Each structure stands twice: as C-alpha cells, then as structure tokens.
Amino acid sequence: MTFLKRGLTRRRVLQTGMAGIIGTGVAPMVFTRGAWAQENFCNNPTGDTVTFGLNLPLTGAYAEEGADEQRAYELAIAHLNGEGDGGLLNVLTPSALKGNGILGKKVGFVSSDSQTKSDVARAGATRMIERDGAIMITGGSSSGEAIAVQGLCQEKGIIFMAGLTHSNDTTGKDKRRYGFRHFFNAYQSGIALGPVLGEQYGSQRRAYHLTADYTWGWTQEESIKAATEALGWETVATVRTPLGSTDYSQYLTPILNSGADVLILNHYGLDMVNSLPQAVQFGLRDREANGKQFQIVTPLISELMAKGAGESVRGIFGTSNWHWNLQDAGSIAFTKSFGAAYGSPPSQAAHTAYVQALLYADAVERAGTFYPPEVIKALEGHEFDGMGNGPTLYRADDHQCMKSVLVVQGNEAPTSEFDVLNVVQEVGRDTTTYDPSIFGGELGPAEPAPLC
Amino acid sequence: MFEVIFLQFLNGLDKGAAYALIALGLTLVFGTLGVVNFAHGALFMLGAFCAVTVRMVLTMETVTIDPEKLSPWGTPLEVREPLMQAWLGDFGAVLVNYSVPFSILITIPIMLVVGIALERGIIKHFYKRPHAEQILVTFGLAIVAQEVIKSIFGPNPIPQPMPTDLRGAADIGAWLGMQANIITYPIWRLVYFLFAAVVIGAVFAFLQFTTFGMVVRAGMADRETVGLLGINIDRRFTIMFGLAAVVAGVAGVMYTPLLPPNYHIGMDFLVLSFVVVVVGGMGSLPGAVAAGFMLGILQSFASMNQVKAIFPGIDQIIIYLVAVVILLVRPRGLMGRRGVMEA
Prior knowledge:
The complex is a heterodimer.
Chain A: H1 2-5, H2 10-39, E1 49-56, H3 63-80, E2 106-113, H4 118-130, E3 136-139, H5 143-156, E4 159-162, E5 179-181, H6 186-201, E6 206-212, H7 215-231, E7 234-241, H8 249-256, E8 262-266, H9 269-281, E9 288-289, E10 292-293, E11 295-300, H10 303-309, E12 317-320, H11 329-342, H12 348-367, H13 372-379, E13 382-384, E14 392-394, E15 401-402, E16 405-410, E17 421-427, H14 429-432
Parallel strand pairs in A: 1-2, 1-3, 3-4, 4-5, 6-7, 6-8, 8-11, 11-12
Antiparallel strand pairs in A: 9-10, 12-16, 13-14, 14-15, 16-17
Helix pairs in contact in A: 3-12, 4-5, 6-7, 9-10, 12-13
Chain B: H1 2-33, H2 40-58, E1 61-70, E2 76-82, H3 83-88, H4 90-97, H5 99-121, H6 131-153, E3 169-171, H7 172-175, E4 184-186, H8 187-209, H9 211-221, H10 223-228, H11 233-255, H12 265-280, H13 285-302, H14 305-310, H15 314-329
Antiparallel strand pairs in B: 1-2, 3-4
Helix pairs in contact in B: 1-8, 1-11, 1-12, 1-13, 2-5, 2-6, 2-11, 2-12, 5-11, 8-9, 8-11, 9-11, 12-13, 12-15, 13-15
C-alpha cells in the first residue's frame, strides 16, 4: 500500500484510469467524427460507379421537355465519363472536373417517368433512392414535381438538382437545403419582361390572365401581374385552368367581350401548345379592343413549345432561361455537342438539365467527397462562368442561381424548323437579382445528414 | 351581355357536338350488342392517327445533303423537298392543305374493317358474359391499342394543321347584322359542329329510313323474335359495330386540328362519353345526343366568370354534378328504357 501512502487513494486510481480510457479511447472520436459521418450517409457509393437518379416527365403535359432533358443528361454523363467532345467541361470556369467520372468513379444513371404528376415524381424518386441507390436526384419540368421531390430529398439526405422549374416557391417558401435550382423563376421573368411589354404595347392596357392552376401558374400570374400593373396596366380577370387541360374554348369565349386588350397565358408545355393556337383560332390576334390591336403574351416560353404551337407563336413575347443561338463559348459548345448527338438544337430544359449534372459533379470534386453536407457547402455561394448564362452565382441564401434572363419573341420569318424564337434582350444579372427574403421560407439543416 | 351568353351557348353547342358524336357510337354498340365497350375511346384515337398517318404520307420529303452549308452544330445541312408537290404540283399542295378532310375517305374503310374484325375476333365471345368481363376485355383492348400507337408514333402529340381557308374566326355577329367583331367563333369549330350534326343525322336517318335500320331497331327491341323470323341479326349487329367504329374514327379525324392527338386522346374522352351515355340513358341514341348537347352547354356556361364568382370551381364538376342529380331523379337517365342493364 505504498501508493496509498503517497496519497494515491483507490478512488484516485479509478478516476485516473477512467480519465485515461476516455482520453485515449473517446477523445480521438472528436476529431474523427466528421470522417465517420462522411462514410455513413444515404447511398454512399462504395464501388467504382456512382448513380444519378433522373426523374423525367416522359409523358403528360411536359413530355417534350422531359424527353429533351433525358437526352441532355445522357450527354452530360457521357462527358463526365470522358466520352464525346467534352461539351461544357471544356469551358466551365472554375472547374475541378477531369473527365474521369466523379472522384474517379464512373457515372451511371437510372430513370423514372414522372408523368408530369407530383405524386408519381415523388414515388419515382423514392424508388430510385431506396432501390437503385441514387446519390443525387435531378430532373423534372414542373414546379409541383420539383417541390414534392426536393421535400423528399431533404428527408432522405439526397441532393436534388432541379430541372426545369420556374415557380417562385421552389427557391422561395418551399426551398430546401438539399434542393438547388439553376433555372430562373417567375419573379425574374416579370422583372425582365415588364419593361419590354411597356415599350412595345404602352402603359394603357387591360390584361386578362389564363393561368395553369398549380404552384407555378399562381406565382407566374402573381409576378407578371405585379410587373404589368407597375407599368400602369389594369388586370381585368385572372382565370385558373386545370393543368393538362386540352380544350380551352370555354375559357377563351369570355375574353372576347371582356374589355381586355391583352391575353396573358400563364401556361407551359402542352398546356400552351394547346391554349395558344386555340386563342389564335378564336381570332384574338386579329381583333381590336379599346382602340388597340389585341396582343397575347406568354411569360415563359421555350423552343419546344414554340415549335409545337407552330405559326401561332410568331411575334409573341416571353422569357427564356437560355437559347441555343447565343454566341458565347458555352452556348456554342453545348449546341455543337447536342446537335451532333441528336440532330436538333437543345432546348432550355435540356440546357438546365445538362448544367445541373455538371455543377453537381464539379461540387463533389471540389468537396472531395460525396457526403451531401460538404457538397452543399461547395455549391452554396459558388461563382462560375462558361455555361451559357454569363457569370452566375449559386446564391447561398435560397439556392437560386443568379444570372441573366432572356426576353424572346416568336420569329416572324423562321428560316428552319428550329429557328422559332429570337432573343430580343439579355437582361443582366444585376437587374434580375432580388432580395431572397421576399419569398420567405427556410432552407433547413444540412446536418446531421439523414440516413435514408 | 347578350353577346357573352350567345358565345357561351355557341361554345356549348360546339362542345356538345363533340360529346354527342363520341357518345353516339358508344351507345350504338351498347344498344345493339349489349356490350359496354371501353375500347370506344381507342377507336376515336385510331381514327385520329389515321389522319396523322395520311398527313405523314402526304408530307414525305426527299432529303439531300448540302456539303456547302453547315447546321449550327457543324454538320452538313440537310435540304428537304416535299415529294407530293414535286409529283402532283398544285394538286399535291391542295392535298397536303386539306389532309384532314381528305383523311376521312381513307379512315372510313379502315375503321369499318377494324370494327368488324374487333367484333368478330374478340367481342362476340363476350356477348353472354357479365358486363364486368366485357368492361375488362374492352379496357384491355384499349390499353393494347394505346401502347401500339405509342410505340409507333411516340408519346407526344402530333399537331395536325387545319386547311388554311378554314383557319381564324368567323364574324357571326356581322352575319346576323350586328356590329363587327362582337361575336366571332373559330371557323373549324363551326365546321366540326356541322360535321357532327350531319353524321348524327345520317346515323338516325340510316336507322329510321332504311330496311337495314328497321331490322336493327327491331333487333334492339327484341333480338330473339327477329332471329326467329329467319333474319341473321348477328351479321347486322356486326355491321353496326363497324359503323360505330367508323363514327368514332371520323370524329377523331376531324378533332385533330382542335387537339393535337397523342396515344392517350381516346382515354381523355372515354370517361366523359360514358357519363354522357349514362345521363342520356343506356342504349338510347336520342338520349346520348341530347345529353351530349346538354352537358356541353352546361359546362360552357359554368365556365363563365360570373358563374365561377358565385360557385368557384363549378366548371370542373358541373358534368358530374348534373349526372348525379339526373340519376337520382331519373335512375335510367334522360331517355333510358326499362330493363336495360337492370337485373
């Protein structure tokens, strides 16, 4: 009991022992906790491949966009794996992409037809996450789908790189930490289109809205209504039409004698491909009202819709996220790659899909891990260029890309079946940037990363 | 206000004509063969795709590569020349322009053959089976037809332009001596309404004023007695199935300029046409036509902003609401006969 005589009581020995065990056993875990978490997350790719989950509306109102997105994703994946001409990998700055997959793993994909329905989109995403081990979900051409799927991805701890979604809510009141949007939104459409409409049609106009009855339509109507009323226009009526409607005649007849001299079609995809020609068939563009020529405006328009609507789209104003005929290095490179692969120029849906796939891959390379919270950090506040929209910021506050927006007009004298829209004006990022707090919402936490 | 109401009424007639035309074929099959034909929408869709095919043939092009010119993506430019105009000159151009009406001539024999083959090959085996089994087999047929069309033509709608002379709107107000541009309506929709009226009238006249029609009507009333008289009523009913397929097919052809057809177009109309048939009274031809027009007009008026201000969303439910009320008040529908679909 010599030790005891030196003041080392049995209690002291036990305390020292316990401290030693804690010191040597547990303390290192403080330093390695992140590393442990980075190995245990949803669908951590352990083999030599990594799988993207493509959630695409291959049927339904936005089927054309879905098909073009699929082509773009397949092209992006080929380029990420070092196949083809490399496309935008050659012009993205800064870039950590090497053309050898992502972190050395070959990129593959699984896909699901969302049918342009939110519930089907969510079910498809769930299946791709739980059954197919998708590390990232991307795609969609409807804001209803985007909001449903990004909510799911937040629960599962899977990053969602949205495809074509234009509702303010996607990165507004329904924004999520795991959701990112490259595409512009309805508010930015209003900012860009308002002044052009004022210049073209004056300040004394009476507008009648037909609006697709879901989140995108509502926010599109709200945004364009605010923009035109700021010009001095009066809103005669706002009428909701079900998404996927085919016959608009009963909604068009009341416009004829409503006192309106502008019809604003807050429709997209097949809805617009149906509603715009029907509005023209009703003779709206041949009419005079209030002593002015009647006009039709489509706040969001794409090449695919313009092609589908045929001659009806000629002379009509709208906004787009991107156009294949832009002459910057990124747009030229992408149009060349896509055209060579598929024999037609890419749509704005294809462009945003392709860019989102590359931006995710680049963020993983920069983060050095697939661990979603680290990838999120790499994307938040990231500045990049070369993707066809000028210098672009992935804003950290709402995960919305801040970049230029195009005002386009239906081509009056197309020279080919692809030459359907003209870029009238490129509205710069300084003009289209807005305060993220105006739409509310909370991103939510990145960590702890949920385990699916 | 008169113009507003008149326009909605006109729109209702236009919608009603489409509903009545589709429901007519459906009730024709039910009235003669007693079969609940869920493949009727698919027949409408097949007719629409006859028009698509005819236009594809008429607009075939020769493709040559011009190595001097490049596409925006750097490949040699394809130069396309229309074949029909090269072969037939101005007549070729007229054929292309009027491809939709021209398609009717091709569609009638095709749909007649399809209808007769369908009845002889499959439907006849289900005459004495319960309605539930008839519904299952015809619904299955509809899905098969849909998938075949989808695999050939793809999932997306294929626009069919109307003839250039029939585009735009007619100034009906000016025709009636009113101020110009007050009551205007798309010319093709008026054409569709007239077409539907002619087809419906022709079917009724065929049944009313021909010996064949008289026998069919007698067979609808009492099949066994007509058979005992030595008349091959089955053969006549087979032809009636073919006739119903033709009516559905030509309805589909003429609808293509109003709604670009895709593989699903038949299903979009199927539910609605069943509601029309049930409201009209199962097996009653005048009932189906009356119900088609009534529901079309009601739906059009329910879409007026003044009505929706009082009953929001009424335009989406009016048809089903009216169906419920009518079936509560008149369980056999507007003109339904006793004993039809009643155990």
